[in-house]
Each structure stands twice: as structure tokens, then as C-alpha cells.
Amino acid sequence: MSGPGPPEPGAGPAVEGYLAEVTTRLPGPVRARTGIVAELRSGLLDATDAHRSAGLPPAEAALAAIREFGDPVQVAVGFRDEIAASQARRIAVTLLVTGPLVGLLWIATVAASRLGIHLAPPWPWTGQSPGLSVSIYLVAAAAGVTAWAAILGIAITGRLTRWLPARPRRAPTAAAVAGFGAVSADGLGLALLAAQLAVAPGRLSPVPAAVAAAASLVRMMLARRAARRCLAIRASLT
Amino acid sequence: MRAETLKGHLDGILLAVLEPGPRHGYAIMEALRVRSDGHVDLPTGTVYPALHRLERAGLVQASWSADGGRRRRVYQLTPAGRRALDTERSTWRDFSTAVTALLQPVPPAVSTS
Q1: Is-contact B29 B68, C-beta < 8 A?
Q2: Coil, helix or strand for B74?
């Protein structure tokens, strides 16, 4: 049993109204909210049962359960920080894992292009123009920023959580920096490829180049969306 | 006991409640009330985010179960959670010993002048 499953049928309008008040205040994707709402619903039904066995009629038992759960705004605020941290963590992990994979595709492209056309220089990307070698350093720098921001994001949302002062904006900030870093790294890589295609397309090995370019393009779009989502979540935190 | 008074100790309290075995959210809340003789009575809704934070920190793990028809999220301590609980206990023991000693009424010092 992994997922929350379908909504419990026994929740009345009062409980559903309370849950809606919490839900509208939660940031992030629907998927992140579904499990939280299902868990709160089952808790409210348990509380309703407890009040009913204490002698209250059903409708009053539901109201007593809602009173017991407390201010929906306060509950939502508690979960908001949690959603911010877990979303940031998920994004940071994804960026950290996909970064080296996409990087390897580009290295394979470089290696295949060099081997395929037996170029004399050891590194076909350099030696074309000073601009290209500078661009390669820029890609490396952007990849470095991405990796460090992602590692930071993962570190502060894991075991360290208990020892750090609670600053809910920190994790989405780190994840957003990692996301925009990845956008820059992939964007620069694609720009480099475009430059190579303009200068000497024949020296490229087309299949690995196409695969690497496609991977970078997908990652760039997803990273951009993730980074913007982190900024939106960050803005929703008080 | 108000939520602010408990602040900083809620993690340890939740871990202690889970020490005997896995429990779902509402059962955790009931155990808090029973074990504290009704002194700890937080808004139940605020316990859930705290449990999620403990889960993210790796101190508890949660899974959905459908015991008895209703689907509930059940929490249990991880080995790291048990270690954290031990630390929490000894920290609290030192702290409460020191504060108890400090709050002890002391007879006024006899003036020697």
C-alpha cells in the first residue's frame, strides 16, 4: 500500500469544507497536496469517531473533530514549509542526478566526433576560436554552481533539518539557484553546439550530438519550470 | 500546555510516543494526551506537519495502511530516530536537573556585615 488511495466516502460537508480551507493555502503541485489532504481527512474521521463514541451525534462529532484540529490557516502554514522543503529537495536531487548524465552525453559527443573524423588536436572544441574555449569554461562554471546549490539544497532538507534554525525560504532558494544554473549550463552547451554547426558541421558525430542536444533541451525546459516553481513557493512563504 | 511551551521539545515527544511501536497520526495525538495526563493538548492539525518534518529528516518512516477499512498513514521510528530519541532524553535530563536545581527555593543569605 503506497498511495493515499481514493477519498474516504464517510467525510461530511463540514470536514470537506475544513480540508478545502487548508488545501487552498497550500503551494506546490496537486500531487504534493493530495497525500496531505488524504492524511488529514483520515485523521478527522478518526477524531469524529472518537467524539461519536464519547456520545456526540454525528454532525456535532464532526464539528468537535474540526475544533480539535485547530485553525486551518495554522495547519496550512505548517505544511507549506514542509512542501517547500520536500519540493526543493526533489528538484535538487533530480538536478544533481541528471547533471552528470547529460554531461556524459556531451563528453561522448566530443569523443565520438574526435574519433570519427581523426582530428589531430586532442580537443576538437578548442582551437576553433578563443570564444569556444571561454564558453567551455562557462559551461563548467554553470555546472559547478548547479551542483553546489543542489548539494546544499539536499543537505539542508535532510538530516541537518533538526540542527538548523528554521528558515523555510532557504531550501527553495538553493533549488532555484540550482535550476537556473542548470538552465545556463544546458543553454551554453546548446549554444556551443550551434556555433560548432555553423563553423564546421562535418566534424560533429551527428547521433551523439543529437542525443546530447535533445537531453540538454529537455533538461533545460524542466529545470526552468522547476526553478520558477521554487521561486513561486518561496514567494508564498512568510 | 501551550504549543509555544513545547516548542523545541515536540520532536523528542513525538519520537517518544512512537518508541513502543508504529502509530498513525490520530493515535499519536491520543497517546500524547494520555501519556501527559491531558497536559499536552495541541491542535491536532499541527502534529501532522511536525511528523512530515521528522520523516524528511529520516527519523521516522511512514507508509499507508488500510487496517480496518480506513486508509491511514502509519509512522514508525527509524534507527536514526531511536538514536535521536536517546540524545533528546539525555539532553532533557541534564537540562531539567539543572533548571530544577536553579528553581529550588534557597533560604536568604545571612548578612555578615
Answers
A1: no
A2: strand
Domain match, A111 and A227 both: yes
Number of separate domains in chain B: 1
pLDDT digits (tens, 9 = 90+) for A86-98: 999 999 999 999 9
3-state helix, strand, coil in chain A (%, to 5): 80, 0, 20
pLDDT of residue A209: 92
pLDDT of A120-168, one tens digit each? 455 555 445 566 677 778 888 999 999 999 999 999 998 887 778 778 8
Asked if A100 and A216 sit in the same domain, the reply is yes
In a domain, B26, yes or no: yes
Measured in angstroms, the CA of B65 and the nearest CA of chain A are apart by 6
**Predicted complex ipTM:** 0.86
Measured between CB atoms, which of B24, B48, B66 is closest to A1? B66
Same domain membership, residue A207 and residue A134: yes
Give the separation between CA A237 and CA B33, rounded to whole angstroms: 31
Tell me the pLDDT tens digit for each residue of B44-80: 888 999 999 999 999 999 999 987 788 999 999 999 9
Contact A205, A4 (CB under 8 A): no
- Cβ–Cβ below 8 Å for A42 and B57: no
Which residue is closest to B66 within chain A, CA to CA?
Answer: A1
CATH number, residue B46: 1.10.10.10
| Domain shared by A93 and A206, yes or no | yes
Domain limits at B59?
3-89
The pLDDT of residue A36: 93
Interhelix angle A30-53/B25-35, rounded to 10 degrees, is 50
B-side interface with A, Cβ within 8 Å?
A: 11, 24-27, 29-30, 42-46, 48-50, 52-53, 56-59, 63-66, 70-73, 80, 84
